[in-house]
Specification:
Layout lengths: L5 H7 L23 H19 L8 E4 L9 E5 L7 E4 L2 E5 L3 E6 L7 E8 L1 E7 L5 E7 H14 L15 E2 L14
Antiparallel strand pairs: 1-2, 2-3, 4-7, 5-6, 6-9, 7-8
Length: 187
């Protein structure tokens, strides 16, 4: 059997990989409700990609995917929290507030799945998104879900988690990462 690198596995599942220009560019916002059909179609494509990926890799910490990661430069992302919680759909998301208290945990990214990086993030964020109707919805997220949501919003802003890592801290090879299959720990 041929050993396939995790990043190649994600590429084979349709995930755009590190180095592609679309991952470094801010995505274009939707005009809602006028572009409702586009937003729904792209959201469906994100759910389909999550389904494909979830069949080949377990995500104990939850998972998310942003439209640029499937080659679509629009501000849509989907986050599946761990457990049975319903998925979170993010359309035109914007972080409007963040706690001063930070937490540093390892993150992975479907767009460079061969490594994990230690990323400081706020423990609590307030996010403004748009509903398909064009109405603004504000939600507060905490801990692991805040981390997942923030990671996906970064993608929509053209940022990868490596941009948030402390100076002098490098990602580690996935083979050295020892927390696969376990949720993030919080006190």
């Amino acid at each position: 059997m041929i050993d396939v690198r995790p990043s190649q596995q994600m590429r084979d599942l349709g995930v755009v990989q590190h180095g592609a220009g679309i991952l470094a560019e801010p995505a274009r916002a939707f005009t809602l409700p006028a572009e409702r059909d586009d937003a729904e179609r792209i959201t469906d494509e994100l759910f389909a990609a999550m389904e494909r990926i979830g069949q080949v890799h377990p995500f104990a910490k939850g998972m998310g995917i942003a439209a640029p990661q499937i080659g679509i430069g629009r501000t849509a992302a989907v986050v599946q929290p761990p457990g049975d919680a319903p998925a979170v759909i993010l359309l035109n998301p914007r972080i409007t507030d963040r706690s001063a208290e930070l937490d540093e945990q390892y993150e992975g990214c479907l767009s460079f799945f061969d490594v994990r990086g230690l990323v400081p993030r706020p423990l609590k964020i307030t996010v403004e998104t748009m509903a398909l109707t064009g109405e603004t919805v504000t939600t507060v997220y905490e801990r692991g879900l805040a981390r997942l949501i923030h990671h996906e919003i970064d993608h929509l802003d053209g940022l990868l988690y490596t941009a948030r890592m402390r100076t002098g801290v490098d990602p580690i090879p996935v083979e050295e990462y020892r927390q696969t299959g376990r949720a993030w720990a919080y006190e």
